[in-house]
Each structure stands twice: as structure tokens, then as C-alpha cells.
Amino acid sequence: MEAKNQQFFKTFNEAFVKGDIENILGSVTDDIVWRMVGNDTIKGIDVLEHALQGMDNGDEFELEIEHIITHGKEAAVNGIIHSTNKDGEQRHYSFCDIYKLNKHKDGKIKVIISYVLEI
């Protein structure tokens, strides 16, 4: 059985692959920091919303979560994302996200550090 925080992070990651911007924004603090290692760092909920809107390119995604580890205000989620574009071309990405919540109980995500590799 999944703990409450494990379910929270599972739902959050599923929202990303579904493009559910409302759920994503409802799960983060106004001063969210999302550092994509080797790429950009997003600071603030307004910048995040703009970035998420720009990610909607019509590709279809499938998520495989391998592990969700939570402890206090921190969590790690890793897995594989399968992407299919409108031409049927497939790509696969291995990811690991490290999360920090603003508080332990019913917290929102304050920091995300993402490591993503195409496999």
C-alpha cells in the first residue's frame, strides 16, 4: 500500500505525462524552483506555467515509475517515459526527480531537481 506522499508524487508525475497543467500548478508552491540538470532552471509558478504550456507539442507519453521513495519533506521518483510523436517516432527517457516539499504534512513541492537521459 502506498503512503500518502507516495500517492501524491505518483499523481504529480502522471499529471506531467498527461499535460494536466492545473494539477501540476496546484501541487507546487508559488516560488517553485525546477532545476533540469544540464538545461534550464525555472523559478516561480508563472514561469512554470508558461514553460508547461510550451511543452504541449502533440506527442503522446507513457510513464513507467520504477521507484518512489519518500522521507519527511523529501522524495525521489525514477522511471522511464516513452514518447511517440505524430509521425509515430518513438523516444525513451530514463529520469530521476528529487523533490523537496515546503512542509511534511499536506505539503506542496518547493524544489524539483530533474535528471533525464535519452535511452
From TrEMBL:
<feature type="domain" description="SnoaL-like">
    <location>
        <begin position="11"/>
        <end position="110"/>
    </location>
</feature>
<dbReference type="Pfam" id="PF12680">
    <property type="entry name" value="SnoaL_2"/>
</dbReference>
<dbReference type="InterPro" id="IPR037401">
    <property type="entry name" value="SnoaL-like"/>
</dbReference>
<dbReference type="InterPro" id="IPR032710">
    <property type="entry name" value="NTF2-like_dom_sf"/>
</dbReference>
<protein>
    <recommendedName>
        <fullName>SnoaL-like domain-containing protein</fullName>
    </recommendedName>
</protein>
